Automatic annotation (TrEMBL):
SUPFAM superfamilies: HAD-like. This is 2-hydroxy-3-keto-5-methylthiopentenyl-1-phosphate phosphatase. InterPro entries: HAD-like_hydrolase_phosphatase (IPR050849), HAD-like_sf (IPR036412), HAD_hydro_PyrdxlP_Pase-like (IPR006384), HAD_sf (IPR023214), Pase_PHOSPHO-typ (IPR016965). The gene is mtnX. One of its GO terms (molecular function) is 2-hydroxy-3-keto-5-methylthiopentenyl-1-phosphate phosphatase activity. It comes from the Bacteria. Its EC number is 3.1.3.87. Pfam families: Put_Phosphatase (PF06888). Its cofactor is Mg(2+). PANTHER family: PHOSPHORIC MONOESTER HYDROLASE, UPF0655 PROTEIN YCR015C. Keywords: Hydrolase, Magnesium, Metal-binding.
Length: 206
């Protein structure tokens, strides 16, 4: 049995949507909060809550903005390939449902298993992290637990990602497809991986 875990920001999408939302909609102070996270002085959950408290735009405005982002070429074809072979596919993101669901829907890609954080608007943003690891504050959404759960069920796990939130999880996978920060991490630590730019590169290997 095969399972494919795919990151969203910068992987399914060509750009990091969550970062772009903060950059364009948050009031002053977001850079300083982001630097605290980079310096590991605060975890992802605290960082996310503090950043989204600076966003005064409504969910309608955020969703409209999210529709400007393109998905990476070949993603639809990869989804079709996975479904045709009855493999498991999970979108795993440390980002937020408010824009992930919107972008997938816009591109006609629905009914996927999505493992992410939630951001709900009601006169302000409320975040929830239902997949957090109580013993670790690095990520809001523990992707490593997802990989380990699938491995225990005897899946061969293929991990596709690009960023910091993918590092802890991917090293437990059987096959890694990496670009950007994740690619550099794999190279630095001599972890075997396949490089990719678009999902057509992934399709070439499976």
């Amino acid at each position: 049995m095969r399972a494919f875990i795919i990151d969203f920001d910068g992987t399914v999408t060509r750009e990091d949507v969550g970062f772009s939302i903060i950059k364009n909609f948050a009031s002053e102070g977001w850079k300083e909060i982001g630097q605290l996270w980079i310096d590991k002085k605060i975890g992802t959950i605290e960082c996310g809550e503090r950043l989204w408290n600076l966003v005064k735009s409504t969910d309608k405005e955020i969703k409209e903005y999210a529709n400007n982002f393109e998905i990476n070429p070949g993603f639809k074809e990869l989804v079709d390939k996975i479904n045709d072979n009855s493999y498991k596919l999970i979108i795993a993101s440390d980002g937020y449902s408010v824009y992930i669901n919107e972008i997938l829907k816009k591109n006609g890609i629905e009914n996927l298993d999505i493992f992410c954080n939630d951001a709900d608007y009601n006169n302000g943003w409320k975040l929830s992290f239902s997949n957090k690891n109580e013993e670790c504050s690095i990520c809001g959404n523990c992707k490593r637990k997802l990989v380990e759960d699938l491995k225990r069920k005897d899946y061969k796990v293929y991990y596709i990602g690009d960023g910091y939130s993918d590092i802890c999880a991917c090293i437990h996978a059987d096959v890694i497809f990496a670009k950007s920060h994740l690619k550099r991490y794999c190279e630095k630590h001599e972890i075997p991986y396949f490089g990719f730019d678009t999902f057509y590169d992934v399709l070439d290997h499976i």
